[in-house]
């Protein structure tokens, strides 16, 4: 009985192919939009998490100044850190894997006729450990090079390609400003971050070299702290804050003139933001599912009116009300589920193209696909019930008289 009703519904839909196509358009758009938004949102969340994890998930960034205090907040100026501050953190705070004092400067990198404006980072070898950055070619700094501030460097992939093309830069010389540096290594490629910056556009030199020969000071701009596995970053953060307040002579009634940023908190904040935005956009896209349901109800009511004499004939020759009800309800569900299947296919294709063009991973969510299909079927049941009940309750005599 149910199979016969299904076949009858199919014949009716094919008989009015154009109207049926326009009817399910709202369902198709709604399902496709929801799947696209959720998939792209999941991909964006995965990329943000991956990019920040590449900086070290158990990492704390200690910087001078109070940072940004909410929207429109100002960054206060403060005395810079020194290498001794980093040494104090390494010596007095337990549960650390590595501490890396760093300083940065912008410079023009030159090799032969090629030149490239890049960021120069002064650091020790612990910088590569904290940043989870592997060496592609060559070696890291020797103890003598770090202590004496030798003019040696490691190149990021972008700088390597801009200055040397496909030729290996090992043993070659580049100029940063007016100073010649020997290339002793290259870094593994990291790619673009979620903040739009090229992580490979970097030249790393010994910290003392940057301080003495490029900047002419002893400042440390950021102290990177890698927390050991199994140690809570919040506990380490508190110890660092207490130590730095003591070293910088900050009284109990004064605010910190530095800030410690936990990268885990940054991950949670950014992923929370993308999740909320994804949910909001999906909810907006889901409204079109309701619009599609209303469209199905409207067309089914019109169909009932057009087929009044047919319904009257069926009822007059012995068809039961529940059979007429089932016939129109099945038609409505077939329309909505067919629209759901098309919407799922379009949504996955759109999400794949969107992921490719905006540079985020394609994250397939079986749950949202199943939920979209079930919801489209539910729309057919809910919005098809009223027209189906109207058809089932027609008076056979009045229906046969209908013109």
Task: Chart the SSEs and their pairings.
Layout: H1 2-15, H2 17-53, E1 59-64, H3 83-92, E2 96-111, E3 114-123, H4 126-130, E4 135-138, H5 143-148, E5 152-155, H6 157-164, E6 173-176, E7 179-187, E8 202-206, H7 207-215, E9 222-227, H8 233-247, E10 258-262, H9 263-306, H10 308-316, H11 321-358, H12 366-392, H13 396-401
Parallel strand pairs: 3-8, 5-7
Antiparallel strand pairs: 1-9, 1-10, 2-3, 2-6, 2-9, 4-7, 5-8, 6-7
Helix pairs in contact: 1-11, 2-9, 2-11, 2-12, 3-8, 9-11, 9-12, 11-12
Total strands = 10
Number of domains: 2
What would you call the structural class?
alpha+beta
Largest β-sheet summary: 6 strands, mixed, barrel
The low-confidence parts are: 68-77
Helix-strand sequence: HHEHEEHEHEHEEEHEHEHHHHH
Can you walk through the features of this model?
The model is unreliable at 68-77 (pLDDT under 50). This protein is elongated. The chain has 13 helices and ten strands. The chain folds into two domains: 2-50 and 268-401, no CATH class; 79-256, no CATH class. A six-stranded mixed barrel has the order 2-3-8-5-7-6. A hairpin with a 2-residue loop joins strand 2 and strand 3. The protein has 403 residues and is of the alpha+beta class.
Describe the structure concisely:
The protein has helices spanning 2-15, 17-53, 83-92, 126-130, 143-148, 157-164, 207-215, 233-247, 263-306, 308-316, 321-358, 366-392, 396-401; strands at 59-64, 96-111, 114-123, 135-138, 152-155, 173-176, 179-187, 202-206, 222-227, 258-262.
């Amino acid at each position: 009985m149910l199979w016969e009703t299904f076949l009858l519904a199919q014949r009716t839909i094919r008989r009015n192919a154009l109207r049926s196509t326009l009817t399910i358009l709202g369902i198709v758009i709604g399902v496709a939009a929801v799947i696209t938004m959720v998939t792209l949102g999941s991909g964006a969340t995965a990329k943000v998490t991956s990019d920040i994890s590449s900086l070290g998930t158990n990492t704390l960034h200690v910087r001078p100044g109070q940072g940004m205090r909410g929207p429109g907040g100002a960054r206060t100026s403060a005395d810079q850190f020194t290498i001794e501050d980093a040494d104090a953190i390494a010596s007095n705070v337990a549960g650390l894997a590595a501490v890396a004092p760093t300083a940065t400067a912008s410079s023009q990198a030159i090799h032969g006729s090629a030149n490239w404006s890049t960021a120069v980072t002064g650091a020790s070898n612990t910088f590569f450990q904290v940043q989870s950055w592997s060496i592609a070619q060559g070696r890291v700094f020797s103890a003598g090079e770090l202590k004496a501030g030798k003019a040696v460097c490691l190149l990021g992939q972008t700088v390597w390609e801009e200055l040397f093309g496909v030729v290996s830069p090992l043993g070659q010389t580049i100029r940063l400003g007016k100073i010649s540096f020997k290339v002793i290594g290259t870094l593994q490629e990291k790619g673009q971050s979620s903040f739009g910056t090229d992580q490979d556009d970097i030249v790393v030199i010994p910290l003392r070299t940057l301080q003495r020969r490029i900047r002419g000071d002893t400042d440390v701009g950021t102290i990177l702290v890698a927390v050991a596995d199994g140690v809570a970053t919040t506990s380490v953060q508190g110890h660092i804050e207490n130590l730095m307040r003591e070293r910088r002579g900050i009284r109990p009634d004064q605010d910190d003139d530095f800030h410690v940023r936990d990268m885990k908190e940054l991950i949670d904040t950014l992923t929370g933001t993308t999740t909320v935005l994804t949910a909001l956009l999906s909810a907006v896209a889901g409204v079109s599912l309701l619009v599609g349901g209303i469209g199905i109800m409207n067309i089914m009511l019109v169909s009932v009116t057009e087929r009044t004499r047919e319904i009257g004939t069926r009822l007059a020759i012995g068809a039961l009300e529940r059979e007429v009800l089932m016939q129109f309800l099945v038609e409505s569900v077939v329309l909505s589920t067919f629209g759901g299947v098309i919407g799922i296919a379009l949504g996955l294709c759109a999400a794949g193209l969107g992921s490719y063009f905006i540079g985020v991973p394609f994250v397939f969510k079986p749950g949202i696909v199943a939920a979209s299909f079930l919801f489209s079927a539910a729309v057919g049941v809910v919005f098809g019930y009223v027209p189906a009940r109207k058809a089932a309750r027609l008076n056979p005599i009045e229906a046969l008289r209908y013109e």
